[in-house]
Design goal:
Number of helices: 3
Order of helices and strands: HHH
Radius of gyration: 16 Å
Largest sheet: none
Strand content: under 5%
Number of strands: 0
Length: 71
């Protein structure tokens, strides 16, 4: 969801040629990152423990792997 919202705002910025929307997208990116790292991930770590640690060690936070089936 977070990346979808950012894509929409960046797309609107490109379509409308509005630099202020790029700044807004940057602020959203920072807010989303802070929310995920300071609220969501600690809750998941507390709830799921070691299984979440293994999951987060093998899955990138924001961008998908280019070759998802490689070790």
């Amino acid at each position: 969801m977070y990346l979808g919202v950012l894509a929409i705002v960046v797309g609107e910025a490109a379509m409308l040629r509005a630099g202020v929307l790029l700044g807004y997208a940057g602020a959203l990116l920072l807010a989303f990152h802070l929310f995920v790292t300071t609220y969501e991930e600690p809750i998941l770590r507390k709830t799921f423990g070691a299984s979440h640690e293994r999951y987060s060690a093998s899955v990138p936070r924001w961008l998908p792997r280019l070759r998802p089936w490689s070790g």
